[in-house]
Amino acid sequence: MSPQAALQALTATPAALLGMSEQLGTLEKGKIANFFVADTDIFTKGEILENWIQGDRFIISNKENTNKDGVYHLTMNHDRRVDEVHSF
User: Fold this and answer.
1) Over the stretch 23-71, which tens digit does the pLDDT of each residue have?
2) pLDDT at residue 62, rounded to an integer
3) From 62's CA, which of 19, 32, 49, 68 has a CA 20 to 30 Å away?
4) How many CB atoms lie within 10 A of CB 79?
């Protein structure tokens, strides 16, 4: 299974099976934002560093010297739903 197919099997597919695709399954404006941050590709040898559940950050691993280079922008509204997602 490709990484893209595996990711969909863990996110969008279950949301669709539950009839909740309008609220869950992808990071889009107006949806509940649950995601994790990994130190590298999670489908190879990646380790989960943080888990974000409806806007709350949970630190899983405090690895030192972890490169988190990149530009991220996530705006959430008062209901803790995604308002904007931008990756640069």
Assistant:
1) 999 888 888 878 888 888 888 888 888 998 888 889 898 776 566 666 7
2) 78
3) 32
4) 10
For residues 14 and 77, what is the distance between their CA atoms, to the nearest angstrom? Answer: 24
pLDDT-based confidence at residue 82 (cuts at 50, 70, 90)? low
How far, rounded to the nearest angstrom, does the alpha carbon of residue 56 sit from its chain's CA centroid?
12
Helices (H), the chain: 3-10, 12-17
- The Cα 1–Cα 21 span in angstroms is 22
pTM (2 d.p.):
0.62
Read off the tokens for 24. Answer: 């869950």
Q: Which residues pair with 70 in a beta bridge?
A: none
Cβ-based neighbours of 2, under 8 Å, separated by 6 or more: none
